[in-house]
């Protein structure tokens, strides 16, 4: 009898439900006979705030916390904001509430992929973004006066130690799977800011415990250049929250767009898996949204669940789903409009299903 895994599902705003539906169907297909995924749909998002005055109900947060994993679609609507003008971001609220300190952003380019870069070598690296502090430390609480405004950047030893341990584990796992050489690069601005010099010192301390993993450092402005000029040179990079926020979009850009960019936010007890892109309300309901980043996020969820529950068959299922997506991308079988094709959302999902 296959084990039951509780998956909290946030359908999101805009195109969110349109890309979530085929993803759930593919997840059920690829896990058949391995595990039973019990999906529970939970209310949250900008639309829920607009209609009910609450972006993330406590009952939804409690249910998400109690689940085995959280699958979250695109959230937010530009027209719905808090009174201070900031956007509705329950996904960030989840990160903070559940202490999801490791933001995982894979960057991959395969032969045939519609990348703006003219490269022939494959690209496969992972950006790990600290997701609970850094320049997001005072999110919603920054000081604003008539004459100036300020936010506070915070880097702590406790979170940094967990973050770096996570990065080294990922580099070791990628090395064992033949996906990387076993190297972690810290991206910082230690030449200017004392907080980043402190972060670098913590990183170097952590590296002493992993002599089998190579390490180096890069300033964030230089890394923005390197990601464009030699993206194939990297394995695992780890950085502060805001730097990671910016570099992850650059990573999506060199992949060809946010429609190919999955992500995970992982803590000690919980994890959220979601596409990097927004809710695109301008195309909602037209059936043309790209579901591939959402599907890839679902594959990442299976891989995380497999490691957590020691289920290698589930990891293999996640790998099959991931490979099916990249087969569709590399062959150009059913590309949606955002990445140079004409396929509908369902066309793209059907192509992944066929590849499986």
From TrEMBL:
Residue ranges annotated for the Isopropylmalate dehydrogenase-like domain, each copy included: 6-352
Record's keyword terms, sorted: Amino-acid biosynthesis, Branched-chain amino acid biosynthesis, Leucine biosynthesis, Magnesium, Manganese, Metal-binding, NAD, Oxidoreductase
Cofactor(s) needed: Mn(2+); Mg(2+)
A biological process term (GO) from this entry: L-leucine biosynthetic process
Residue ranges of the TM segments: none
Pfam families: Iso_dh
The protein's Enzyme Commission number: 1.1.1.85
Record GO terms (molecular function): 3-isopropylmalate dehydrogenase activity; magnesium ion binding; NAD binding
Source superkingdom: Bacteria
Entries under PANTHER family matching the protein: D-MALATE DEHYDROGENASE [DECARBOXYLATING] (PTHR43275:SF1)
Similarity field: Belongs to the isocitrate and isopropylmalate dehydrogenases family. LeuB type 1 subfamily.
Quaternary structure note: Homodimer.
Protein name (Swiss-Prot/TrEMBL): 3-isopropylmalate dehydrogenase
């Amino acid at each position: 009898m296959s084990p039951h895994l509780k998956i909290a599902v946030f359908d999101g705003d805009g195109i969110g439900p349109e890309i979530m539906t085929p993803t759930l169907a593919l997840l059920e297909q690829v896990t058949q006979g391995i595990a039973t995924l019990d999906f529970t749909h939970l209310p949250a998002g900008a639309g829920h705030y607009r209609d009910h005055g609450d972006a993330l109900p406590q009952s939804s947060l409690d249910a998400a916390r109690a689940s085995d994993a959280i699958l979250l679609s695109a959230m937010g609507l530009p027209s719905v904001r808090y009174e201070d003008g900031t956007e509705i971001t329950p996904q960030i609220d989840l990160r903070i509430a559940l202490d999801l300190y490791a933001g995982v952003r894979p960057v991959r380019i395969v032969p045939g992929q519609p990348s703006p870069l003219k490269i022939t070598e494959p690209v496969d690296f992972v950006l790990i973004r600290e997701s609970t502090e850094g320049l997001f430390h005072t999110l919603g609480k920054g000081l604003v006066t008539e004459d100036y405004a300020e936010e506070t950047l915070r880097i702590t030893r406790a979170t940094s130690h967990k973050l770096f341990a996570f990065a080294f584990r990922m580099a070791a796992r990628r090395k064992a799977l033949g996906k990387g050489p076993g190297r972690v690069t810290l991206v910082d601005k230690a030449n200017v800011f004392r907080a980043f010099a402190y972060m670098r010192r913590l990183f170097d301390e952590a590296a002493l415990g992993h002599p089998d993993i190579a390490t180096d450092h890069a300033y964030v402005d230089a890394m923005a250049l390197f990601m464009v000029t030699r993206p194939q040179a990297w394995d695992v990079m780890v950085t502060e929250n805001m730097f990671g926020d910016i570099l992850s979009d650059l990573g999506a850009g060199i992949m060809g767009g946010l429609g190919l960019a999955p992500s995970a936010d992982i803590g000690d007890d919980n994890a959220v898996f979601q596409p990097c892109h927004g809710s695109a309300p301008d195309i909602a309901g037209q059936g043309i949204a790209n579901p591939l980043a959402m599907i890839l996020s679902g594959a990442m969820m299976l891989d995380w669940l497999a490691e957590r529950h020691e289920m290698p068959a589930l990891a293999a299922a996640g790998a099959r789903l991931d490979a099916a997506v990249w087969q569709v991308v590399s062959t150009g079988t059913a590309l949606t409009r955002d990445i140079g094709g004409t396929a509908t959302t369902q066309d793209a999902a059907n192509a992944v299903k066929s590849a499986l």
